[in-house]
């Protein structure tokens, strides 16, 4: 079998070469992936790649890029290879201990921003990179938050991202399961909990199943364990009139609404993601 073709040394042909390899490997967005990875490997902006197609790259830049292309061929997501993910206009560090934040979760952040009162206090359960809590604090300089995660390693990444975005002084981090480490009451409780039924994890695409931590995906036998825990504990941690906002998986809306209604809440809002799926539910306690 002939050896693999040497990569070209100039920007445009290098991108064409890399996109071809990614296309052959079955990647859905080979051109975009190749460009994002070359930006990371060569330390160049999108504009520089577009405006300087004949730019000559150094040997070490090409070697680093080739290693990244090999990881992407093995279906590792671009954001994990780069260690960075854009969320709501900001860049967040992503590690093997955190979920790679998804664009759909911006729906959760936007719903929470709409419900958070002036100078409001919020609690995010299961913070991961902290993309959601940090977005709320960055958008609302009057807000304070607590973010929890059962994974101390994930919370270390939350802390790093909070420093990066200048909100660490308004964010308290607590390690533990759901409400266990939490004291006090909040105007808003929000969560994007694990919601994949355990048996379905093996059927997910390799980009997800092999790289997102199982702790961030596994919602128990029917995918709803976390919602039961959150619905059971929320009332004791809400101010009067406070809200609970949760992200949900496609098609889980009715069952999750029923869990919260049985725990004494009423549904006050539901929002769709860009794909038209109901992605986020908001509840308020029914006052007696
Ligand atoms: C789907 S990820 C969401 C991460 C982040 N909020 C986001 O939207 O990108 C769920 C998070 O919940 C955390 N988690 C799982 N079980 C938990 C538990 N029992 N208590 C608190 N957090 C938990 C996971 O470690 C993970 O960071």
Bound molecules: S-adenosylmethionine
Tally the beta strands. 9
Largest sheet features: 7 strands, mixed
In N-to-C order, the SSE pattern is HHHHHEEHEHEHEEHHHEHEE
Summed up, what is this model?
The protein has 288 residues and is an alpha/beta fold.
Structure description:
This protein has helices spanning 11-24, 30-42, 46-51, 59-73, 78-82, 106-115, 131-139, 152-164, 206-209, 214-217, 225-234, 253-262, and strands spanning 84-87, 90-93, 121-125, 144-149, 171-175, 186-191, 238-247, 265-272, 278-285. It is of the alpha/beta class. It has 2 domains: 11-74, Helicase, Ruva Protein, domain 3; 86-285, Rossmann fold (3-Layer(aba) Sandwich). It is 39% helix and 19% strand. The structure holds S-adenosylmethionine. The site of S-adenosylmethionine has 22 residues, from helix 7, strand 4 and helix 10.
Keywords:
288 residues; alpha/beta; Helicase, Ruva Protein, domain 3; Rossmann fold; 2 domains; seven-stranded mixed beta sheet; 9 strands; 39% helix; elongated
Structural topology:
Elements: H1 11-24, H2 30-42, H3 46-51, H4 59-73, H5 78-82, E1 84-87, E2 90-93, H6 106-115, E3 121-125, H7 131-139, E4 144-149, H8 152-164, E5 171-175, E6 186-191, H9 206-209, H10 214-217, H11 225-234, E7 238-247, H12 253-262, E8 265-272, E9 278-285
Parallel strand pairs: 3-4, 3-6, 4-5, 6-7
Antiparallel strand pairs: 1-2, 7-9, 8-9
Helix pairs in contact: 1-2, 2-4, 6-7
Bound molecules: S-adenosylmethionine.
């Amino acid at each position: 079998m002939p050896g693999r073709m040497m990569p070209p040394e100039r920007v445009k042909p290098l991108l064409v070469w890399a996109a071809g390899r990614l296309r052959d490997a079955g990647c859905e967005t080979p051109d975009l992936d190749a460009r994002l990875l070359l930006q990371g490997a060569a330390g160049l902006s999108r504009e520089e790649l577009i405006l300087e197609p004949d730019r000559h790259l150094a040997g070490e830049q090409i070697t680093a890029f080739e290693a990244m292309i090999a990881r992407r061929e093995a279906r590792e997501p671009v954001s994990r290879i780069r260690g960075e993910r854009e969320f709501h206009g900001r860049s967040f560090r992503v590690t093997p201990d955190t979920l790679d934040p998804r664009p759909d979760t911006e729906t959760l952040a936007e719903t929470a921003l709409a419900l958070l009162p002036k100078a409001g206090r919020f609690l995010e359960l299961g913070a991961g990179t902290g993309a959601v809590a940090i977005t709320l604090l960055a958008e609302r300089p009057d807000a304070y938050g607590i973010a929890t995660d059962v994974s101390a390693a994930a919370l270390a990444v939350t802390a790093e991202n909070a420093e990066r975005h200048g909100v660490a002084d308004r964010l308290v981090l607590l390690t533990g399961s759901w409400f266990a480490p939490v004291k006090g009451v909040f105007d808003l409780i929000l969560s994007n909990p694990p919601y994949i039924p355990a048996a379905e994890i093996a059927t997910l695409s390799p980009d997800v199943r092999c790289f997102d931590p199982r702790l961030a995906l596994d919602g128990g036998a029917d995918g709803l364990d976390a919602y039961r825990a959150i619905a059971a504990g929320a009332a004791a941690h809400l101010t009067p009139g406070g809200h609970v906002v949760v992200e949900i998986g496609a098609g889980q809306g009715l069952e999750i609404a029923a869990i919260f209604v049985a725990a004494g809440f009423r549904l006050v809002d539901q929002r769709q993601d860009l794909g038209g799926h109901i992605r986020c539910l908001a509840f308020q306690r029914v006052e007696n």
